[in-house]
Amino acid sequence: MRPCIYSILLSVCIGASLLAQPVEPRSFPAQKLSRPPVIDGIVNPDEWAQAYLVERFWSPSRQQWGAFPTRAYIGYDSEAVYVAFICEDPDPSQIRAQETKRGGYLENDDTVLVLLEPQARGLEPYSFTVNARGAQADEFPAGTTENIRWRGDWQAATQSLPNGWSAEVRIPFRILRYPPKQTRFGVILERYIPRLNEIYTFPNMGAYYSTRRQSLWTGLELPPPRYPVILLPYFTGDSDPDRTHGRGGLDVRYIAGDPLTALLTVKPDFRNIAADVARVDFSYTEKVLAETRPFFQEGSEFLPGRAVFYSVRVQELNAGLKAFGALGDWRYGATVGEYEHNGRLRQFGVGRIRYQFAERSFVSLLGVRLQGDVQEDTLGALLDTQRITGAGELRLTAAYYQLSGDRDGVYQQYTVYSNAPERRPNYLLQYTDIDPNYRPRLGFVPETGYRGWRVGALWFDRPDSERLLYTETRLEATRRTRYSGGRLDEGVAITQQWLFTSQNRLTLSADYLNRPPNIDRTLGVEYAWNVLDIYRTGALSVRVGEQNGGRSLYALLTQAYELAPRLRLKLELESLDIDYPSDPTDRARQLIFTLNYEIDPERAVGGRLVLNRLEFGGETETTRNFYLTYLQRVRRGFDLYVIYGLPNATRAQNRLAVKIITPLEL
């Protein structure tokens, strides 16, 4: 029955993709500049006279031209892409621009974005964001490290105007991966106005916004791709009361355009990278942690998902080699490495090949091999087909993985979901079947031995109201049964959220979960204030009810505050209590206190205190850690990290480490 349903859905999705509504304009001409403009934020019409002019921007949420007039210019020369924005505002005093640090959090600021997709195939684009203060942030399709010279530099500048603000951007071709003899790019230009919670776009996308719905910038005469080999050697001097020692390592990156990016790491320094800290709220299963290590971040989207490869499992990496790239309809990624686990060496290899067989439709083959004191292989296939139009997105994914070795099992998951604009329902339907023995050592599969469904619905709106800016309703239901018979769990969850024009947010939630022998029932409320002010925002969440057979109470308080110009702190305080009729109470407390002083946009001093006490099942674990950091991440020269303490230790360490990173280009 499942293969039949799967085939029908696949046929519908692929057939529907042929009816996709194009954006407007579907394409626009590339105009080469005889002289590059000066990137100073002042949009001089004479400097931009040869560029293509975008006279107005579209508001997908309002389905009309943007209420705040916005114009843009885009052009290029033999070295770079140039873009300028003129953003009018009826009340310039309301323009928000708090972040000054490169790569900082710009989500709550007035910003402009340039999205470039060099393959012009509707794939994930490069993203270049600038806020009204000139702070820059970027996202590359394959991910990359934070070192500016490694990932590639680009320039931006802004100016305040009596009726708004303006921005100019220069993006060198050398930081973009594109095929030889390429003559067109996919392009989206955006403006975001946080106090309206609105995005204005070029091109006109209709009612549904997607970064894959790009206009084609045609007629480009691009220089041949040129990419240097980049060496990123580092040296760490480490001193504690018992000893003083040094450690060195090397990262190498070689790019051959779109077809190949290769990375080599030898003795990477993971000790001085702060790992993600898990929340202490109750969960029946292990929680997912974000990957923070540069070697695993770069090119991660070319590799299998975490049900096959969860890179956090690889802790003490001795050396690794990674390659990824694209060639026509094909994309690939591969990683090999050696790491230590409980004092024993293990070697692993991870690979994925993806083929685009139709517009926004892909099939992938993937595999993982682990050897050393254990031996196991995972092989699988993944189908992903989409239809995106001005009315929304319909997507189908199907995954099948086979584990063999000392553990043999199968993982299957089929998902259909529909995304739509506001005031239209969004749906999710997912079926999962995981064999009891599908437990890959490098994968993240917190529960096995079940079959089940998950159904979800989402409705949201941006009402034309003086008080209400945004409202959202979510509903989700699950039902899973064990291979051995009987229910694993079934439940329903509903969430209602309101975002007010006062920039406060209220969220209500209710959850019911029948997981034998327990029946969980919880009610939650969260109130957040100053949600657009990253230096004063805060929230209080409380959830009460029954969990795991006991009475539960969970609370989370977060608060950011700017003590003085550029001196900021953030407090996160969590508490969980589950009182059982006869067993000892489960109790957890956690405090995370972060302090940061921004010397300038490229240098900062910070500190972090992590305190927790976890009492579960009669066992107690505690963390009492504090460390200080100095960070220098610059456009020219060397990056410098000074750390007193050890970021991921359970106890504070009397330790001083100095790390110097000096990129070299060959």
Characterization of this structure:
The chain is mainly beta and 666 residues long. The chain has a domain at 31-218: Sandwich (Immunoglobulin-like), CATH 2.60.40.1190. The protein is 4% helix and 55% strand. The chain has a 24-stranded antiparallel barrel. Strands 1, 7, 8, 9, 12, 13 and 14 form a 7-stranded mixed beta sheet that branches. A 5-stranded antiparallel beta sheet has the order 2-5-6-11-10, with no helix packed on it.
Give the tally of β-strands: 39
Mean pLDDT: 89
Tell me the strand percentage band. over 45%
Q: Report the biggest beta sheet as strand number plus sense, adding barrel if it closes.
A: 24 strands, antiparallel, barrel
A few lines on this structure:
The chain has a domain at 31-218: Immunoglobulin-like. The chain is mainly beta. It starts with a helix and ends with a strand.
Layout of strands and helices, then pairs:
Layout: H1 2-17, E1 27-29, E2 52-54, E3 58-59, E4 64-65, E5 70-76, E6 80-88, E7 111-117, E8 126-131, E9 136-139, H2 148-151, E10 155-161, E11 164-172, E12 184-193, E13 198-202, E14 215-218, E15 230-239, E16 244-255, E17 261-266, H3 294-297, E18 316-327, E19 330-341, E20 344-358, E21 361-371, E22 376-389, E23 392-405, E24 409-419, E25 426-434, E26 450-461, E27 468-482, E28 487-500, E29 505-515, E30 518-529, E31 538-547, E32 550-564, E33 567-579, E34 586-600, E35 603-616, E36 619-632, E37 639-644, E38 656-661, E39 664-665
Parallel strand pairs: 1-14
Antiparallel strand pairs: 2-5, 3-4, 5-6, 6-11, 7-8, 7-12, 8-9, 10-11, 12-13, 12-14, 15-16, 15-38, 15-39, 16-17, 17-18, 18-19, 19-20, 20-21, 21-22, 22-23, 23-24, 24-25, 25-26, 26-27, 27-28, 28-29, 29-30, 30-31, 31-32, 32-33, 33-34, 34-35, 35-36, 36-37, 37-38
